[in-house]
Amino acid sequence: MESVFSTSKRKLLLELAWEVCNQVGGIYTVIRSKVPAMVEKWGDDYVCLGPYFPQRAAAEYEPITEPDETEIGQTVRKMRQMGYAVEYGYWLVTGRPKIVLFHLESFIPQLNQIKHDLWERHQLSTLGVEELVNQVIAFGEAARVFIKLLADDHARRVDLVAHFHEWMASTGLPDLRRENVKVATVFTTHATMLGRYLAQNEEGFYGKLPFFDWQREARHYGIETQATIERLAAQQAHVFTTVSDVTARECEVFLGRNPDLILPNGLNIMRFTAVHEFQNLHVKYKAKIHEFVMGHFFQTYSFDLEKTLYFFTSGRFEFSNKGYDLTLEALARLNWRMREANMDTTVVMFMVTKQPYHSINPDVLHSRALLEEIQETCEAIEQQVGERLFEAAASSSDIAMPDLNSFVDEYWRLRLRRTIQSWKTKQLPRFVTHDLVQEDAMTRFIRQAKLVNNEFDRVKIVYHPDFIASTNPLFGLDYGQFVRGCHLGVFPSYYEPWGYTPLECVVRGIPTVTSDQSGFGDFIMQIMRDYENRGIYVVNRRTQSFNEAADQLANILFRFVRMSQRDRIAQRNRVESIAEVFDWTNLRSYYDTAHDLALKRRKP
Ligand code: G6P
Ligand code: 1S3
What we know:
By secondary structure, the protein is of the alpha/beta class.
């Protein structure tokens, strides 16, 4: 009998993720940034599959009015004839791939039957799960139906590969294998559910790792369904992968299988032809951060902005997983050392994350508004003085400089004095920019470490419990611009399967701190020797205690604040030169290997 897999056949790649056209977190970045490199290789034979959420898709999705005659178009038509609502069109991101999005409500009426089958066939218990898991199961079923139809009708002519990201895309995978559907499958986990929970809650997580009983822990944390889906997908895919060696260590314990391959994450990198261009952008956006800092701090006291360095961290609010605790501890030590050394440099640290808040603090907004008024008044005075000086100079025969004070109207003098008076205050600058719904681990730690923005402190804290967006009135910058304006990104994570944030600094030429427990840090240590000289500092969190790691980080920061401006500029050039390594056109080859291996394993 003729094999359905032959080397001469065309290949068709489906990539499935909950975050296709639906931004939630890091996986969206992976898929979206990889699109141009995938389309370059696969052209129209690359298609992304995701769930359909009209509001989220609105800005990113353009439907194809009448399905084409491609295998995908025909399968979409067939599914619609079966009564399912399916979207088919283009994802409006760089690379513009074709996408298929499933209306989940189409599958909800059969949910009980699907769950029953999952239990019968795979002992996957879904009793009492939250609504999100129901949606995930509906998506998994939609994908399964689609892939089965596609394979049944077309596998004779095309080799199909389906790449599933995370458990949220993968409830249909075990049945595809069980029914021996002619598709080669790859499953990539971007973290493990249990790793996430346990790292956050179990002291000495990594030391205990080999001894955890996955099922007992999953029950304890109420995530047995999610952990089981992840485990089934990992075990049943032809090829199982994860994003770093760091996460691979968890996979055997929690998912019962060692990954076949590691697929590191990249970005779609666009470098400037001349390096001064990105250096200029640093100055441009730093000036915007200066404006915020003046508005926030100078109403109480001032410091020299020429001698001010901006550090930041950013990520979800996983306090110890993301290393916020370590960062604050190291900053407290840095503050003490800078004071001991009588330094006149100031460090402003931005802690950017997302926590529930009522609104931006009114005082913070008011101060910012008053500063703008002062600026407008100064501009008006500048114009008045300029015009009158010009008139005076042109009409006078005297070459002596006139008294500029006399050119300013009483109105403007008074207005400037009054605005400055009402702006100045004795209150310490707030260390949190928003009115939080409640105190949290961050505010408690900041108070306890006494990093409360006293004038004598060399390290100031700005805790911004919302992600940075250009619509935010405090900075008026988008995240990428904010990163460019800073001097150093600080991300000494304890649990971080990959971690895009340090990489997002590198590609913008901003030096960064990462850790050997983050996938990115681990990867950089494997591929490069002089990473520190290039501006990537790796904190050892694998073998050091919290206290030792805090000391190491404080040392790194102390060395950084003593660098000359000339050295900082040179370091930015060096760090930016690494960017290319992480371009998907280079890192796509890891994905190519996974797809080839899956096809090889699928073939009889
Ligand atoms: C860039 C600009 C320089 C500027 C420097 C400031 O390199 O091209 O003109 O002096 O940034 O660097 P700093 O580290 O002090 O923000
Ligand atoms: C995960 O997202 P997270 O921030 O929950 O996947 C990302 C993409 O692979 C990865 O960068 C991150 O470390 C993981 O944790």
